[in-house]
Amino acid sequence: MPKTIINEENLRAYLSPETLRLNLENHYWIKNNMIDKIGHQAPNLVVLSFRRMKFITNPVFAQVFRYMKDLKRIDLTDCDGLLNTACNLLIDNNKTLTHLQLSGCNNAVDDSVMANIAKCLCETLELLDVSYCKKITDEGLAAFTDKTVPLDSLMINGCNGISGPGVKQFLHSFKDTLIDFEASLNDQEIFTNAFFDTLGRCFNIETIDLTGSHGIDDEGGRLLTNVAVQVGNE
Fold first, then answer.
1. Dihedral pair phi/psi, residue 202, rounded to 5°
2. Predicted local distance difference test score (pLDDT) of residue 80
């Protein structure tokens, strides 16, 4: 096996309290009985990716997160084995996370996880990706009410349990910092233009993606334009 490929032998040699970054994206050949030692052997990791590691089970995630207290960035995209218990443990133990990628973690991300994010990460979180997490509802979004979060990137693609009014309330928590907003493939009827006036007051916004969100129509553009005109006249 080429030296550039991580296997269990060189991973074991690499892990130590001095290890700060680890990327195991799609490293499907590394077994759970090796992965569950990562937290104990490298407790000071700052950046960690288990992206597309679909076979990792929830107890293994919990064993890893049990020891980690200093994570800043974590990518758990498409980790099917992650449940809300280990996800909440991750959040509870790492209250200075800035980047939290949970896209496709439909078995893990629900309203309880969203509430825990709002509780623990409201002072540090800059990027949140919960795309395709269909258990999230407006109740989870409402956990951010009256909180100010330094979020600049939000991805809620394919979150089919949320509504336009729910997103409107959600956006208020970071309208002064938001730069990138993705909410494509939200084809549910309740996902309406209701949040567009608030989106229009996100004055740092640079990119908006609403592809395939069929409840969005020309009225949304009118709301955005009206806000811009009103602010320009103030």
1. -85, 85
2. 96
pLDDT means over runs of 10, the chain (234 residues): 73 96 96 97 98 97 98 98 98 98 98 98 98 98 97 98 96 96 94 89 91 74 52 38
Given a contact cutoff of 8 angstroms between Cβ atoms, the answer to whether 35 and 9 are in contact is: no
Helix axes 84-93, 111-120, angle to 10 degrees: 0
How far, in Å, CA of 27 to CA of 221, rounded?
Answer: 43
> Distance (Å, rounded) from C-alpha 78 to C-alpha 101?
10
Domain covering 1-108: architecture: Alpha-Beta Horseshoe (3.80)
Query: What confidence score (pLDDT) does residue 222 get?
Result: 62
Distance between CA atoms of residues 108 and 80, nearest Å: 8
**Predicted TM-score (pTM) of this structure:** 0.92
Q: Which CATH number fits the domain 131-234, given the four candidates 3.40.710.10, 3.40.50.300, 1.10.10.10, 3.80.10.10?
A: 3.80.10.10
Gap between the Cα atoms of 130 and 165, Å rounded: 18
**What 3-state DSSP class applies to 186?**
coil
